[in-house]
Amino acid sequence: MATTKIYIVYYSLYGHVEVMAREEQRGANSVEGVEATLWQVPETLSSLILQKMRAPPKANDVPMIRPDQLLEADGFLFGFPSRFGVMAAQCKAFFDATDELCASQALAGKPAGIFWSTGFHGGGQELTAWTAITQLAHHGMLFVPLGYTFGSSMFEMNEVKGGSSYGAGTFAADGSREPTELELQQAFHQGKYVAEIAKKLKN
């Protein structure tokens, strides 16, 4: 049986989405016959601006992706922080650069999930997901929502938890909050879930 390739493509400014992405990768790689790879989208901010924003260095073990490399994957998980209720401009710039792939519908029929980070409850936990789905729809990709497959943990009310039926999520607050164990479990579950679906579609 051929290997199912999952590309986890993300942008992370302060590291919250990166932490989630690594857990998504672990979940996807837990599925037999699946090979999940991490990719970063290119940064659009200058080094001076990043320095002034006190942004940490990018992960040196995760390569930058080019739009044409999306053709190699059988399925995707796209991760990004929220900016005013939509994906960060770096991710939007990357999707804008996929116009040739969109014109040829080269990615049509490939499954894709999304995950994200927002500042707080009103920071776009669901709106960021809704506005991201349009990118997938124009490519003809198959959006794979998380649904309520995470079981009773979807209804957790005793602690703050990001995410929804659209995908896994976390809260960054003022930047000091890190993804919780429950949020990481949800990310792992999503990675596994999307990988299983991609594997079924491929085979």
UniProtKB/TrEMBL annotation:
<protein>
    <recommendedName>
        <fullName>NAD(P)H dehydrogenase (quinone)</fullName>
        <ecNumber>1.6.5.2</ecNumber>
    </recommendedName>
</protein>
<dbReference type="Pfam" id="PF03358">
    <property type="entry name" value="FMN_red"/>
</dbReference>
<feature type="domain" description="Flavodoxin-like">
    <location>
        <begin position="6"/>
        <end position="194"/>
    </location>
</feature>
<dbReference type="InterPro" id="IPR008254">
    <property type="entry name" value="Flavodoxin/NO_synth"/>
</dbReference>
<dbReference type="InterPro" id="IPR005025">
    <property type="entry name" value="FMN_Rdtase-like_dom"/>
</dbReference>
<comment type="similarity">
    <text>Belongs to the WrbA family.</text>
</comment>
<dbReference type="InterPro" id="IPR029039">
    <property type="entry name" value="Flavoprotein-like_sf"/>
</dbReference>
<dbReference type="InterPro" id="IPR010089">
    <property type="entry name" value="Flavoprotein_WrbA-like"/>
</dbReference>
